[in-house]
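Today's session is about reading a structure prediction critically. Students often jump straight to the picture, but the first step is always the sequence itself: look for stretches that repeat, for charged clusters, for runs of hydrophobic residues. Only then move on to the predicted structure, which in these notes is written as discrete structure tokens rather than atom positions. Here is the chain we will use throughout the hour.
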Amino acid sequence: MPTYLTRWIMAFNTDCQLSFGFDQQTEKPQPYHCGLPQGSPVSPILFLIFSNAMLEKSHYPADAVDTSYIDDVCMVQTSRPIDRANTLLEDRTEQYLLRGLRLGFTFSVAKTELLYCLPITSKNKNISLSSHPPLRIMHTTILPQHHIKYLGVHIDESLTFLHHTAIAATRGSQVLGSFKFLWHRSHGMPAQVAYHLALTAIFPAMFWASPVWWTASPSTTNTLKTTYNAVARWITGLPLNTRITNLITLAHLPPMEAYLDYLSLRFAIRLYFLPACHSTGPPRQHPHTRQDLPGLYYLYNLSKHLIMGKLEDRITHLPVNGVHPVTSPNPDKITTPQHLHQQWLLTLPEKTIIICTDGSQLDNGKTGCGWVIFCKNLELIQLSEGHCHLGERVVVFDAELHAVQEATSSLLTTISPDADVYICIDNRAAIDTLSFNKSNHEYTRRALNNIANLHLLGWKIRTVLCPSHCDIPGNDRADTLAKQGASRNTPCQYATTTKTWLLSQAWSQLVRRWKAKLPLLALSFKFPDHL
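Below is the predicted structure for this chain, in token form.
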């Protein structure tokens, strides 16, 4: 670590003072000599760096797994017999504690919990907990329990998560009760507001970490449905004798099982794009695993029909900046967009490069992109054009960004002198992603890398929103080329299965199940304005 950073951290943690305030009165600041300054964003970062030294290991055996989140640590030990697993776990814990004492850290014994997860066929499965050996660490005895809590999830010894499901349903009922009190005190609440609160407050509390424990088993489903139906009744205000199908339909809620599978599938897709060194890793098939086991096994079964071919690379990082968008001359499609675009072109100096890009998807799912490059003199002179076929596993958003990648690659090979460049894009989300690629989208990353190289050569590149299908010549030509690209059969070398496409398939799967269960409903997570 650089010396200046060490000195800065030392100064940050030296001569700290603390004062308490109550009832508009604040005491005189007093010095304190432990802990980190509260309220600063750097404090949790320093804590993580410091505490990680306590958990460092020289090797990582497969039967000894440690995971930590902030100040919560979970240690898993697998071994036979049970006494051997217990001894190994005691040794590992004591090593951490001894290292922690040298660093000024210690575990909270009062919060330490012990759980034995035994196979269903084990002879020790049904014996009393008192027959299992306790954990003895540093003269402290920790007795085994039927279930423990880790990161808000209650884990039971058989991994059925029935105990957690019951607590989740209760938690949802408690949040619902709080809003019912608010409804009573405010003399009514619009159904739109109740619907919004259900999606943003009640269900997140109730379905917290559902990809970990949800398996669609009848025992968990029935427990949760009682609260789910109560939320639907609160949204609609319908009486208790209303049929459940009508209740869920009028509340504009999806079937609970389909909604929970949707949340799990989205999480599974996220796991496929994690680095190889990540502790969770992608869902995998385990032939010798119980068929009803939650977690990665269930996530694999949900997602295996979608994951095929080459996946988009969201792991590689490049230190490139985003592209600054300029104010569009066309704020909407209402105010003569073609005329406004022509006027904007007249304000640009000669030799300015104009790039028009577009993406298109046919009814059969085939997707392509197109781009046209112009140079402005007295009029626009076309320099080059092109199109690509990206296959059936991307969305139009991806195609828009790949068109920018291909167009900027073409500029890198041109013999034209450096100039100002405006990339006209008809997709606002694509412009925002080029401005800040927070999700590390592969096509965006490649396009931004090309743009960074062009900047080094003296080019100045900006993006501008250009509305589609408004008889703007360059945009219409790019649209035609994108359709030609989509109609081809030979895919581009950069064709992949994108994360955006996978997430769209997760939503499509939810919509299909939603329609099958509630065919009369207009499907959206937006509550109808007329209700």
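Discussion point for the tutorial: The CA atoms of residues 363 and 486 lie 10 Å apart.
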